[in-house]
């Protein structure tokens, strides 16, 4: 049975990071589960479920030399790998508006109170440096319908944020 | 009628291109009846194609009625042409692009976002061989395109936009 860890690698972006880090893992006998890589503000970030036989120190001995050679930081956490128990999203929320501090906190705080579990969230700042626009999209799961989400977000719509809450209808065929 | 066994990925028969129906006989009617019963036996399915039950023929059923008539307040945008039996279907017009989430009886546990034409006009034969042309939009259009992909040996996995919600690893 595998031991599973969440390995986070962060640093200055450069070509070949994924190839070199995953090659080191593979050579060390560690396999990948789910992973997510993205660039945030020009920085490289990746989170990988890594499985194999060994403790945290053994995994660090494999991944840290490869990451250090690229000037990257590594963080390792032991995890339980039970990803198949995640529910599918049934709500999609789009938010945009003039950038200000606290948009994510305002929106997600109200959504949490209304019963939403966030399953995936991405945000970025667009527009111009003089007039930045904050854009956030998230998928989530709500047990008791989405009307409560609309009501919870109504006051933010009145404060200049454009918010759309839509059901996610899965076509099964 | 009978509930048929549904093939699941990676069964290689799901990748076969189905053959045109040339005989509009009792066995075709039986296949359609069995597909209908198999579809209704599945988890909220609104369509099924013959290759999913191991029959290499260009036959599919689509009926989005249960989805549109469900109790939820915000129903998906969709045309509704009733229960559609599509034999040798072809898309003769397509318009617009829209992303939506799909799952598949042949790909248990996974769903994914797929880009499809928003509306299509489909020319198909019915179970007796008569030619029909159907204009579909929204959810019904998506269901038809999904089922027609099965006839060409394609799964929604071949068109998925993001792997984020796929490949959930079962330990």
- Major beta-sheet overview of chain A: 4 strands, antiparallel
Task: Catalogue the unreliable spans of chain A.
Answer: none
Query: pLDDT below 50 for ≥5 consecutive residues: which ranges of chain B?
Result: 167-171
Per DSSP, the total helix count of chain B is 3
In N-to-C order, the SSE pattern of chain A is EHEEHEEHEEHEE
Largest interface: A-B, 26 and 34 residues
Number of domains of chain A: 2
CATH class of chain B: Alpha Beta
Please characterize this protein's 3D structure:
The complex is a heterodimer of chains A (173) and B (171). With 173 residues, chain A is of the alpha+beta class. Chain A is built from four helices and nine strands, in the order βαββαββαββαββ. In chain A, helix 1 packs antiparallel against helix 2 (56-69) and helix 3 (103-113) runs antiparallel to helix 4 (147-157). The longest helix of chain A is centred in the middle third of the chain and has 14 residues, at 56-69. Chain B has one domain: Peptide Deformylase (Alpha-Beta Complex). In chain B, 20% of the residues lie in helices and 32% in strands. Chain B has three helices and five strands. Chain B has a five-stranded antiparallel beta sheet, with helices on both faces. The A-B interface holds A 2, 4, 33-34, 36, 49, 51, 81-84, 86, 88-89, 120, 145-147, 166-173 and B 42-49, 62, 67, 72-74, 76, 100-105, 109, 111, 139, 142-143, 146-147, 164-165, 167-171.
